[in-house]
Amino acid sequence: MNKKYILIGCLTCWLTGCSTQFNRVYKSDDRAYKYEYAKECFAMGKYQNCATLLQELVTVQKGRTNAQESLYLLGMAQYGNRDFDAASATFRKYYSSYPKGDFAEQAAFYVGQSLFVSAPEPRLDQSPTIAAINAYQNFLDNYPDSPRREEAQQALFKLQDNLVQKEYLSAKLYYNLGGYFGNINSNTESNYESCIITAQNALKAYPYSDLREKFSILIMKSKFQLAENSSEEKRMDRYRDAEDECYGFLNEFPESKESATAQKYIAKCKKVTGD
Q: Model's pTM, two decimal places?
């Protein structure tokens, strides 16, 4: 038990000593000392302390020998501290200030990387995802032979998957909303039509997506439901369109679990159209 209290006491003294030293450095007017201590903090993984010191120093370092390094190091400290929005902004600032600088390639990569690690799940707004994609693409365009090329490309694929998933969730929502209306009305039609448009646009934008079959199922089902809920004027054309969609689906996905659904739709369409 005594050993436990001794260890706790030693740890408390060590933390107090570290805090006292940081406060002394922070209040110091010796900028060179502050900078060296900031680098020491970074090496020890004390990213918050490092960032706190560098945020003051980067302004006064402009035009000096350490200006580039201090700005880049600030970005890395923010990244290490998981302050990804701040890190992305700092790396972007570095790249715009020093496009040919010593750390330009690394900064360009970490603009995207900072956005990538904080990218939202597909159900949420994907603006940060699009920003990350643009940042990575800028990195790959400017540094095609970078040793981090493969890492950036893999991140791009994951980000694009997020966008595809977002489109799928949107298309599925439109389809589900369409089913809430039991009578023929513009709301039903607009929901199914929105599902079709969203899914078709996604297939054009991401033709090799793993969700291709799921998008195609939504299109097929929406076209059939659109025919089922159509006015007499549009009914025949829409049943024929739904039938064609079903045949196209069966040709592309003959082993699909929805093959029986497609066959059932075809039989119903033929019964209505008499073809």
A: 0.80
